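Incident log, structure service

09:12 report received: a user says their structure output differs between two submissions of the same chain.
09:20 pulled the input from the user's history:
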Amino acid sequence: MTFDALFSTSICYGNGAPQAGWTLALPITLPLLAVVSLYTAGASRLWRRSGRGRRLRSRQDFQFAAGWAVLAFALVSPIHALGEHVFAAQMIEHELLMAVAAPLLVASRPTAAMMWALPVQLRQIFGAAGHANTLRAIWSFISRPVVATVLHGAAIWIWHVPALFEAALQQGFLHYAQHASFLGTGLLFWWVLLPRPGREHACGNAVMHLFFTSLHTGLLGVLLVVSPKLWYPANAVGSDLWGLSPLEDQQLAGLIMWIPAGLIYGGAALLSVAFWIQTSSRRHQAPQELRIV
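09:34 re-ran on a clean worker, output below:
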């Protein structure tokens, strides 16, 4: 099997229009199957040990299943192959990766389950590696909210530079590198900013970064909508499949990034505000209850 065949997607042409099939390229399917198999094995072990925590375990399992299903849909379903020819389809795929699959996977906290799927010796090796000074220093730096926000924003803007975007369409390796950077920085971004117990003090900072991300992704979407010129002519081959001119295809892609994706980031910011207010009220109520007693 050649390198190009390994990274190829299933798309054929009939009557002059592209008809996309399912993408079963090994660089996509193997990691997806490995991740879900690892999580399932570890989650089964944790379920037997969870006891009173089974309600939380069930919610996390549901979140992981939903996130994995969205991820698989974005990368394997015909939407992936269509994205090579219809800009709006590619934008849907990218937003599913960054704004839907990534936060669901992060909310499921899959690390513990996946570690429990490993043999004891491997768990010890990974545990020791996680405590290595160099890795801890790197993680401490990239997991700062401002760094995670900048990395995620940079991935979005850099890959939308016309020359790089069209190069990714032509070269399979770059295409998958693009998706990996969107998903990877998305996972980091949501891990750092999603509210969770023990991180109440960071909610105010998270709100600011979520709103900022909503604004700059919305700005990129607006630029695509109002631009009188095509940004990516090579991506306009199959726009007629959806009954759109190439420029209308670009405008639709911009609207998808501007409104639905912006609402997700903005909605997450509002949820963080609600979580912040709720936890703050609880902290203020506790000392008052102690004084009454």
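09:41 both user submissions now match this output. Likely a transient worker issue. Closing.
09:42 reviewer note: The chain has a mean pLDDT of 83. The chain has one domain: 3-117+133-292.
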